[in-house]
Design brief:
Largest interface: A-B, 36 and 35 residues
Structural class of chain B: mainly alpha
Order of helices and strands of chain A: HHEEHHHHHHHHHHHHHHHHHHH
Order of helices and strands of chain B: HHEEHHHHHHHHHHHHHHHHHH
Number of helices of chain A: 21
Oligomer: heterodimer
Radius of gyration of chain B: 21 Å
Strand content of chain B: under 5%
Largest sheet of chain A: 2 strands, antiparallel
Low-confidence stretches of chain B: none
Number of helices of chain B: 20
Strand order of the largest sheet of chain A: 1-2
Distance between the termini of chain A: 38 Å
Mean pLDDT of chain A: 90
Radius of gyration of chain A: 22 Å
Shape of chain A: globular
Low-confidence stretches of chain A: 494-498, 500-504
Number of strands of chain B: 2
Helix content of chain A: over 70%
Chain lengths: 504, 478
Amino acid sequence: MNAALLPLLVGLPFLGALLVLFAPLGDRSLRRLAMLFALATAVVGGFVFCCFEGNASGFQFGFAADWFTLPGGGTTRLALGVDGLSVLMVTLSALLVPIVLVTAPGHVHKRIREFLFWVLLMEAGMLGVFLALDLVLFYVFWELSLIPLYFLVGIWGGENRIYATIKFVLYTLVGSLVMLVGLIRVALAAGTTSIDELVVGNLPEPVQHFAFACFALGFLIKVPVVPFHTWLPDAHVQAPTGGSVILAGVMLKMGTYGLMRFGLQVLPAGAAAWGPWLAAIGVIGVIYGSLLAWAQRDIKKLVAYSSVAHLGFVVLGVFAFTEISLQGAVLQGVNHGISTGALFLLVGVLYDRMHTRRLTDFGGLARTFPAFAVLLIVSTLASIGLPGTNGFVGEFLILFGSFAERPWMTAIAAVGVVLGAVYMLGMCREVLFGRVTNPACEKLEPLKPREWAALLPLVALMLWIGLWPAPLLDRTRVVCAEMAARIEPWLDGEEQAALPREPR
Amino acid sequence: MDPYSLSAADWLLAAPLLWLAAAALLVLVLDSVRPTPRLEAGVALGGMLGAALSMTPLLGREETAGFLVAGGGSMLRATPALAALAIFCVGAAAFAGFTALRGLCRHEGGRHGTAFWALVLLCPMGMILTLWADHMAALFLGIEILSLPLYVLAALRRADAGSVEAGIKYFLLGAFASGFLAFGMALVYAGTGDLGSGAVATAAESGGIGLVGAGLMLIALLFKVAAAPFHLWVADVYQGSPTPVTALMAAGTKAAAIAALMRWGPGPEMVPASGWALLGSLTLLVGNFSALNQGNLKRMLALSGVAHVGILFYAFAARAAGAEAEAWSTVTYYLVAYGLAALAAFGALELAERRSGGTSDEELLRGLARRQPLVGGVLCVALLSLAGVPFTAGFLAKYFVFVEMVRAGLTVWALIGVLLTLVSFAYYLRALVTLFMLEPAREKPTAVLQDALAAAALLVPTALSIVFGLWPEPLHAL
């Protein structure tokens, strides 16, 4: 039962994608079929979350089958498993896809079959990225999740979609191809591609430094951090709402997940050496992303740039290397997925009705569209980290945990919290309050059931995590403590003699 | 030993050649007696099936050498990897024949040209000889038998100026290459007194006239594989030829020529690892950047084929640095992966062209995926495999090459390689934009030929691209 759980989790959307592609059904039935598979996946994802043993160390629900053997490179396996680092993201990915599908009829009107196919295929890829316990398998899923988004943005995106989607894919590919070389270097140095062996083994230091640089480039572009962030606003603005939700909710988190899984767990020496620089890049991202977001007049772009700032916090938390900051980083990844996902959905709600995203076109919606106003305010508050919402817990843990290691950077990053409040609340004021200047704002269609169905679960999650984060933190505690302990000997420069080294 | 009796190994090696030659002759005779396209196609298919099946025992044998030469050595020598490539070449020829059939029949008023099937059957025969050649005479024969039918096939659409141009260009430049090859062999022989498989290495070591001969042979083979700077013919020839013939050139000729280059090219003492890496990078650079802005998918695929040769040279570099055994499995896998994707891509373009009015101009193929979902889907898989996206054989092919490079200590070259590969994504992705994301071009009111045979044939390389991408072991472990 347990061993079959994760193959089922990846297999269900994959199977669903194939069925959707070939089933001789009409559009409505196809939507239902896709929804069925997405919901089934979400149920399995929820089951994995519930059954996950928080106090246990290592990977759970393991599954492995031999794939192919490279002479000298060990056996590459189809290996899946979940630990505290991935369990939250697995569940979040599985939950977000039904939400995307439920809102899809609002903004996807053409080529339904292909749309559903790519969404489900992307889900399989995303889940695979978080579950893969083999370097090659990880890379396979990493790329597999990329191609569907290329089509999603390129076919169902906005005006400038071709430019945006090619830019997005080429940026990501620069990173992933360089990462491939690092991956090969690691596999050959270790003689294995099993992640569960690599996270406890010790590679020679020069290999770690080189491989870390390769991996980090791939992940930092994906996150993205300044200066690799320019693909993000383009992709977000042009993507259909569903694409933006997945992109913000899951794709970006593949980058921070990778930084922790490969940077900290597999290559601790490399992470320790590069850590201060990357933390600094994270802080720059917080400030620069906030300033950029502040300057935007397009509401979707504003939310997109706010992602750069939020993920800057996460990167800082990762490279502060303390247990608490790492917990904050993991949690904030989830939080960002929920609140930014909700914000993109809300932007989509407005765009579907008014076909504009310019801030100046809105105003006074609090009076004409009250339900929307409530949801937007809750999501905004979650995004800026008001106590009682999920964002507060994540940001607080990151800042609290990082301060011990990197006080100055943390102090600067804290300014970003204020900036976040400035631009997000400014956005709220312009959209919701003031006088109604645009006649189109007067008679807006009330929220449809499917929009409620998409937004309410997200708002509920924001409040739940904000008020009672323990179930999540319990699941991440052990792995974060282990990560902090694993990197500890490499800090402070006395590492050389202390560690047992395997001569390879 | 009686020089006129054949051993079991001789028969094993001769069997596929005999099958193909017999079928070719039979088709010619049938055609002159009473032309019946169906019967001829059946005979051709039978010959190719027989040839392919007769090669399966070779897959299980360590190494098979046959037609021993009096002074030592042999004429033909097959390993499992070379047998697999030979089977693949036969399959490629069958694919090309059956995707071309209906289109040709329409062009020639219900009949394909007289010698069509005979030519299609002779191509793989030449490829097999080239692959297995262990003696310069066999190599030269193989390359000639492989090339001559292709010159004719390239010009098969006599009414089409582009096709005739392709045939002439291919012929003239091919003749040049044959001249280089023959003269190189002569000089190697003059330098070493040997025509066997070891002669090139000996000649390169001995220097002088032998070294010049080895160099000339290298140039001839580089021309055949279309490596930069000997690639200039490739775009016009690939574009002008009937598209299924292009598929055969891309898949079969490339496989045979690369394998020949691997067996007959210079050893590490003449071209070291860094030399191959440099040549590979140059080929990759030139191929990718010339493919970048073509505006015609056939030309783009032709020049992207040049880039793939560049990546194969990286495997040669790893081999020159010492990994002989791994190099063969890597190269074999790569050739088959590339070949399958090229077959699928060109085959799909053949079907697309019947609708777009005979060209693969991007303008005319806009939004193709919506008009012809099957063709669009096949092209999508093929282009992703060529680009090297996971779940296709193309990804693992590149992965294996880069693993060999890093293992051989060529990590910096591997980094250069992946970054050059990135350029290729730009044009593959742009092709996908054209096919999937742009609005369809204005439909020309032409009657579209229904061709279930070609459509079914298309599914074979497409499916295999995915199967080998998921399950590389049977091919890679040869």
